[in-house]
Amino acid sequence: MSRYDFVTVWDLEFELPDVWTLIEQADDWPAWWPGVLESREIKPGDPNGIGSIRRTTWKSALPYKLTFDSETIRVEKFREIEIRAFGELTGRGLWHFEQIQDRRTRVQYDWQVTTDKAWMNLVAPLARPLFRWNHDIIMRRGEAGIRRRLASGP
Which residues of the chain are modeled with pLDDT < 70? Predict the structure, then answer.
């Protein structure tokens, strides 16, 4: 297994509740996040979403797809959403939200995962920079997508 630690920061000129809603409603990501091919809940959680499991398929610039499940393990409304990932990736994701000005929100996503696909682990010593580049592209597409969605209104 190869371990990866990614940190992504989005500085968005939108109010925190609006940003929160789009991130929290992950089944809608394919509508605004280029590269998210599918995101669907396969097990419901409690009223706060704790325990829900979602299967997501991603495709970016490199010629492969990744599908993994994520279980919501912690939610602090308007502050954090933490998930546990398993499947073709194993690890942890943590969304941090902070209202930094009246209509400005900072979102940070910490993604610590290991790859479980044999071919990815085999090529990791050489391909690690490409995997990082690919991750950065998908996150930049997400940032652009959320900006477009929020600018267009409800």
Answer: 121, 154
Looking at residue 58, its pLDDT comes to 97
Structure tokens at 43: 């097990």
Alpha-carbon gap, residue 93 to 110, rounded angstroms: 6
pTM of the model: 0.92
Q: What is the pLDDT of residue 63?
A: 87
Residue 55: helix, strand or coil by DSSP?
strand
- Distance of alpha carbon 138 from alpha carbon 36, whole angstroms: 9
Q: Compute, in degrees rounded to 10, the torsion defined by CA atoms 119, 124, 128, 131.
A: 10
**Contact (Cβ atoms closer than 8 angstroms) between residue 70 and residue 85:** yes
* Domains in the chain: ranges and CATH: 3-152 (3.30.530.20)
Q: Are residues 72 and 83 in contact, defined by beta-carbon separation less than 8 angstroms?
A: yes
135-to-30, 47, 98, 103 alpha-carbon distances in Å: 16, 31, 23, 28
